[in-house]
């Protein structure tokens, strides 16, 4: 191994120092081109999203049983109560039909009076997922 002379060593060190000062990181501008339908999809998701929330909301369970009967119960409910959303939830081995999305228990109980006329076995629940 050859040892550099002090003059060459210092000259290399100074050259390397000046060279590292002049180096730059990569600089560039990034532009994203997105489809206009993407914004429309986001708006729709924002509208739907509050109705999807399960936590801290009350629901009314109108059916508990097999898949075919659950689908029929949900379609009958949607026909009778057009302004209340409903969904089918699978918890092994049965299907449950949950309707409504109420912030308070009082709101849910008010609607449940009307629902119990058609579905006498309906019960008020507060899912905890």
From TrEMBL:
Record-linked Gene3D superfamilies: Sporulation related repeat
Source organism superkingdom: Bacteria
InterPro entries: SPOR-like_sf (IPR036680)
Keyword field: Signal
Keyword Signal assigned: yes
Signal peptide interval: 1-25
Name of this protein: SPOR domain-containing protein
Lineage: Bacteria, Pseudomonadati, Bacteroidota, Flavobacteriia, Flavobacteriales
């Amino acid at each position: 191994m050859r040892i550099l002379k002090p003059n060459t060593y210092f000259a290399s060190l100074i050259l390397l120092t000046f060279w590292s000062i002049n180096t730059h990181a990569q600089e560039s501008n990034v532009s994203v081109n997105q489809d206009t339908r993407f914004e429309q999809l986001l708006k729709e998701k924002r509208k739907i999203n509050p109705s999807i929330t399960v936590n801290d909301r009350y629901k009314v369970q109108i059916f508990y049983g097999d898949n075919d009967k659950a689908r029929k119960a949900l379609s009958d409910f949607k026909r009778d109560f057009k302004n209340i959303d409903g969904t089918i939830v699978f918890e092994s081995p049965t299907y449950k039909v949950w309707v409504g999305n109420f912030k308070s228990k009082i709101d849910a109980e008010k609607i449940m009076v009307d629902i119990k006329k058609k579905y006498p076995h309906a019960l008020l629940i507060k899912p905890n997922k």
